Amino acid sequence: MINWNPYLESICHKYDEWWKVYTLTDVEGRQQVETDRSSLLLGLKVQTVLPNKQIERLGVLEGLRKYVKEHVLLVGRPGSGKSTALARLLLEEAEKSRGAEEQGSRGAEERQIKIPVLVELRYYETSVLDLIRDFLKRHRLLLNIAVIEQLLFDGRLLLLVDGINELRSDDARGKLKKFREDYSATPMIFTTRDLGVGGDLDIAKKLEMQPLTDPQMRDFVNSYLPEQGDRMLQHLGDRLREFGQTPLLLMMLCSLFAITDDVPHNLGLVFRLFTQVDYDRQRLQDVPVTDESQRWWKLLLKHLAFRMTQGSEPTELRVAIPREEAEKILKEFLQQEKFDKPRDRAMEWLKDLLKHHLIQLGAGDEIEFRHQLIQEYYTAESLLEQLPHLSDDCLKREYLNYLKWTEPLVLMLELVDDEAQAKRVVELALAVDLRLGARLAGSVKPEFQEQTVDLVAGLTTPQKATIELLGITRSERAVPALVPDLNHEDSAVREMAAEALGNIGNEAAVSALVQALNHEDSAVRSSAAD
Question: Which of 175, 199, 281, 468 is 20 to 30 Å from the Cα of 475, by its Cα?
């Protein structure tokens, strides 16, 4: 008989403390965020399509619990709260199981308590079974693989499997798919940010994280910044939807506004200024560090992020690496920069980055960024530096051709000041993949979007495809091209134009949709209302 109490107590202690103190920032207003985090998470919604084609919307934890027995995939944008939802579910299920265990082991067996286990795929090396064993071990429970397999066959565990998109290879994804099939009696929840990276493991039931609603965003801002919230919302205007749809980005934006009293023009600048504030804040901490180390922080982080994203294979993406490997990467970089004793400096400066919380140690003493989005930002800065020296063929072959570079490329384009370079990247992307090119066309600085969105509008694609691509740009420049299509003779074109305007969602698009609410075509009215 397994004594689960030490394990469950460890989970409850760690994740209850994590829930109270976890934040990417440490600025005035933190207490308000701690107070409201639970209500914010519980207010997040997921949606799924039912067999009768109806849309079902549920609270995120409610939806996960409803469909976990048949295995469920939680899909959402970076920073939308997927991992946080799993952590909260882990805590609540551990508390529930601990309470049941305390009532007696016989009753526990009869009720078939599901013991929750968090499986973080970013640490995958050999097998999912090893990840389960390691998580149990970190929380005071030693079980061998044979015992774990029996628990899985008996359906005694509840697996919370985080980050399909963070697996490093197709081989690892294939093994994960087989694992799911082999232990189908065990309830499992999986998360991923993009179905294009890693696929869906043939999981039929998918729940999609919904963006924060306008009232949720406004409540969050006013709770985080009780004295500055109204002013920040005025600064944002109709950009609130663009910047604040995910809790992570909204928290970063509030953190910045608390210090700068200003709102950056795009998300690339949000990351750049947020990380700069990080450096400044860490310098104020009473932790010894040399001026030379501080001067190299950003360059070290850029190089480390780029190498982790690059991986050893074109399709490999690494979001956690052994500490020794991180030291080796930094040592080679400092050698190239002609430093003496590069190994000593790499070890010391990596230690500085850790103790100032610019990166962190994860499970198994592995180095990781505090969020994958932060890694992607530093990768974007590295790409920005290399861009003028990359040939067209190299850009297409090594970057635009692989999904793992999409988010860094988006962030990079938001920082590109050279219009010719921005247009070049979009043209090359359209030659590789139309949807990628459309997204990048809307990611360049607003003053460059007239040219890049015109590239999309001028494509020799069927009209319906062009409308869809214009919606993907999410650019204000696409609105004038879409509005006439609301009155197109083809009803399918009219409906798609309304949907595309909804995807763009800025003030000009909303004005057009308000007019479309009175359209004679009921399908257009319905799409406009949605």
Answer: 199
> Would you tell me the crossing angle of helices 323-336 and 342-355 to the nearest 10 degrees?
120
Q: Measuring CA to CA, which residue among 271, 273, 269, 336 is closest to residue 307?
A: 336
**Token pair listed for 208:** 């999609």
| Dist. CA 501–CA 413, nearest whole Å | 23
Scanning 442-521, the segments in alpha helix (DSSP H) are 449-457, 463-473, 479-482, 491-504, 507-516
| CA-based torsion, 475, 439, 208, 97: positive or negative | negative
Distances, alpha carbon 155 to alpha carbons 101, 104, 186, 505, in Å: 17, 20, 4, 45
**3-state DSSP percent of the chain in helix, strand and coil, to 5:** 65, 10, 25
- 376 contacts 194 by C-beta, under 8 angstroms: no
Structure tokens at 353: 């980055």
Q: How far apart are CA 387 and CA 378, in angstroms?
A: 14
CA-wise closest residue to 275 among 234, 305, 309: 305
**Strand pairing category for 157-162 and 115-120:** parallel
**Using CA atoms, how far apart are residues 475 and 457, in angstroms rounded to an integer?**
12
Name 59's bridge partners.
45
Q: Which residue from 310, 11, 245, 15 is spatially nearest to 140, judged by alpha carbons? A: 11
Classify burial at 460, counting beta carbons within 10 Å of its beta carbon; exposed 0-12, middle 13-18, buried 19 or more: exposed
> Digits of tens for pLDDT over the chain (530 positions)?
899 999 999 999 988 876 665 444 333 334 444 444 445 565 788 999 888 878 899 999 999 999 999 899 999 988 888 998 999 999 999 999 987 766 665 554 445 689 999 999 999 999 999 999 999 999 999 999 999 999 999 999 999 999 998 888 888 999 999 999 999 999 999 999 877 666 789 999 999 998 888 888 888 888 889 999 999 999 888 777 777 778 888 888 888 899 889 988 888 898 998 888 766 665 545 556 677 878 898 999 999 999 999 998 898 889 999 999 999 999 999 999 999 999 999 999 999 888 887 899 888 789 999 889 999 999 999 999 999 999 999 999 999 999 999 999 999 999 999 999 999 999 999 999 999 999 999 999 999 999 999 999 999 999 999 999 999 999 999 999 999 998 888 888 988 999 999 888 888 888 889 988 988 888 888 888 88
Query: Residue 468 and residue 439: Cα distance in Å, rounded?
Result: 11
**Closest by Cα among 237, 248, 311 to 274:** 248
Sheet hosting strand 366-368, strand order edge to edge: 321-322, 366-368, 360-361
For residue 189, count other CB atoms closer than 10 A to its CB.
Answer: 26
61: which 2 tokens?
A: 């934890």
**How many CB atoms sit inside 10 A of residue 224's CB?**
26
